[in-house]
């Protein structure tokens, strides 16, 4: 195919290249572009390739295409280049903002828009740099199209310095429209801030920049906005509108998650430190925050004072919207409490205020700023002073509203309203007491409040009225009448007030029946802890009988199935019945209803579950939720400023679950009652306590996961002070007692850590908590809850002590010793050392100086904590070793013994061999060589023995507790025996029994006995008897040489038995004896000691004789004891003596055998042998023979005694009297009748021989005669009961013979008066109890009957007595004559009737 032939005419021929060809081509291209240029498209192209096209060709001084295009277009249109460029850039910005295609109410750019705008702003910066751009014109153009712009675009213009925001909003003439536009977009920004996570940071930065700009422009120090123009104020304080709309939204109510809620939340978020961090001066944010606080407090002040009085209980912290409380907290962060109170006062004095905001702000202030609580109290006091000084009603209103609002938050932050009202007006120092004018002012104010008052405030005013002088009493009575009338209108009765109703509570008045149920529960709780009818119940039964009878008793006497073992409710009902506080008819009806209640059990009860289980769980839900929120705040370090707010919410939830703490209002005067032996909680209280303790443990673990204890903030201390009020403290401590004492080994590691930390904080905060009624301070109390007697409890105690000590040291790494001792008790530290020594042999060696380990708290918080490693780590820690250098925490030898005695060997962690080795190490290697200043014995074995004896006595006598082990005591007694043997054989043997010092054992006994209470009352006697029984047990466990010392080697002298004789004569004779003889065991032990002394002597027979001769004069009861037990004692004595000394018994021992034979021969009818030795020894042998023979017909045998033996017969009568008293003091009634017959027969023999026996009833310890010996042979209680024995024989007296004796009347009156004194002192109670139990003894041993017979006998005998009998009767009557006035009158009358009565003197009996 041929190619077509095109004409070629008119074609331009290609020009050859040349030097000027390139310039011509550039000019042609430029002309072409200018003819076809579109500026908007050009800006788009320039934006896309701006990095390559934006520069001017500096080398050729050529203009950029954009500059040339703008100049050409401006010349064509006849406008300046700057105007054209501004309009072009504004048009491009509007185009970019509208390019998203999304709704027009957005304020943020998307990613594509943000990229385009960034390039456009670079173009604008180029134009601005080359003088082709005017800021002022640009601002004017932007204001014209402001409704088409997105807020982020405006912000980016400001950030990249194209035009500043102040230039933007100060340029237009229509400021109002600009403010409205900016306010609208700021609201949208707050609403959309959380819509997308990718835009959140940009939105927060935008809002922060805007706020900083507002604050800087509006709150500079030199800016006086009060004199500024309104337009300027509108320009610089655009935050006011935003805050106002937020407060308005809060007032109308917000739903969580709604757009309005997000807007308010994000706007309030600007009031924080980092939002204002770019301020040049710190005063600028303060002025901004103060201005905002003023705006909040004065926002729409439509509520009147009467509205505030009526509604303020709904404005407490817990009921205020969380967003508003968060705003308050943020405002408080910059302003100190003093500044806040000053600003409060200024606003209240100069503005009309919104009382809801003012009072809710007060609640937040006292909750979140503990240091402001004192300032609030002082402020209220100043307001009251000003009010009464000038009768300023505004100050009075403010003071009452603020005081009531603070009181709503509980007594932990402010006194309850009744307490505050009584403290302010209930004494002579009150503000109102200065004059009549102030009194009238006060009651006028209170009266004006009456129509608007809540019933509880009226009740508080009535029950705690102001103190008024008597002449102005009518003011008070008029007010009380008005208040009662108002209560009547409100259908609230003062008579129906609950016994424990909390007048400071913000709750509504409940029905009397419901209040009565609460009163019953509280009364039962108080009764459980005191065992007495509560005072409030007793007062109500007298002074508030309508409520008591109509409401309280029906609630208490609700029919139920009575438990087999009476519970607390049943015990309280029984106590009230015995006190005649329950009408008999009502009690009878209650018992009948209870008897039939079991037949009508509800099905739910039969199934073993409560009837309404849902109601039980429902109240705990909000409390658990509040605790979860608090835990989230603890786990988030950024939320440290909201802890107080969460705790206030927890406190409010606790009040809703348990009701208000009735005793908080009087916390300063009340004590928490704890029952440690049987800790008990109501089901609801235990659930709440478990919830709180679990929450604390979880909080601690969460906080410890990100910070050590010293950097966790004050959350734990605030938790303790907030939730541990009076009632909750009792529940918490009771639950701690249950867990630590009874469930410790089953607790998990996190529970151990949490409870240990809680105990530390409770101990540290004890001064701010109610007093606890236990015998120990708080730290020692918690230590006492840690048992360690078994292997399981020892390991738990070690874990708990390790956790508590490690937490305390970590919490206060640089704290003083006093700070640590406030958290840790010395007892806990000693327990830790004790268990560590027992369980780990590594701890028995002192830690090396090279050990530089850290605190083990982090180790304990790990999931798999190694407690052994942690305990040893703590032991080696330098801070802990320095703590142990303090004297208070030394584990002394005495401390170790006390703790070791509580170990139960059968359940011990150590085996028997390991325990023996440990005890030997502790005594021999650790404590014995240790200096006394460090708690050791200083190398003194005698000191070690003495302390061991003393501790054993203390633990065995006083403790008698479940933790004290008899086997443990026996093991240490074996150690004592070993050490005592070392003392006798070692170099200290010569000192242990030295006469000048005495044996160490008796010195311990003597010091302990001197410390015991004296007297003969039952408690003192039982205490002393129990002590002496343990003494005897220890003596029997030690070598008998303790009783009878070693003989002196230099000369034949008796071994020293002084200490043992002292113990027998002063103590064992009275409490550890069988009447006139010691018990068999101690008697045998003494004679073993005698043989031991003889074995060490060169003259055994002489030594034995010397010892027994000493007994005759110093301790005769030892010999009478040998006579009593001779049938069992003699074979052993003969066998030992024959095998050791190959000879007859010593003379004094033979004499004991002869005395025993003499007693037998007197009763056998054989020819009576002459009585050997002293008469009292033969009489004792005869007395024991009569007792063992068991027969009363012995007169014929006694009459065979030689006439020269009247003294023997007299002493035998004394022994028979002791036998009579002994039989009356023992439960063998038949023996008492037999003993009485024996006494009667011996008395008959004495009277037949005309032997005066009255001397036995006037014994004294004077030297010479039988007095000293007989008084050492009988127990002192028996001697004191001789008047009882005297008148028991009244029917056997030969009255005619007695009346002829001059001493009879004196003895009879003396015995009678002493018998009355014994009866009054209760010392005849044992005799009376025995006579009551025995039918045979009725009328015979009854002290009352005996006194009656004795009185009758004296009144009949007094007229018949000779004149000599009345000598010195006046002395008797002067001492005890008031015991029986009639007998005294008869004696005095008879004495006065005698003419020469003064010539006679009292007969000499001795």
From TrEMBL:
GO annotation, biological process: female gonad development; interstrand cross-link repair; male gonad development; male meiotic nuclear division; regulation of CD40 signaling pathway; regulation of germ cell proliferation; regulation of inflammatory response; regulation of regulatory T cell differentiation
Segments forming domain Fanconi anaemia group A protein helical: 514-594
One Gene Ontology cellular component: Fanconi anaemia nuclear complex
Domain annotation Fanconi anaemia group A protein arcN subdomain: ranges: 618-844
Record domain Fanconi anaemia group A protein N-terminal: where: 143-493
InterPro entries the UniProt entry points to: FANCA, FANCA_arcN, FANCA_helical, Fanconi_A_C, Fanconi_A_N
Residue span of region Disordered: 1-24
Top-level division of the source organism's lineage: Eukaryota
Fanconi anaemia group A protein C-terminal domain residues: 1177-1382
Name of protein: FA complementation group A
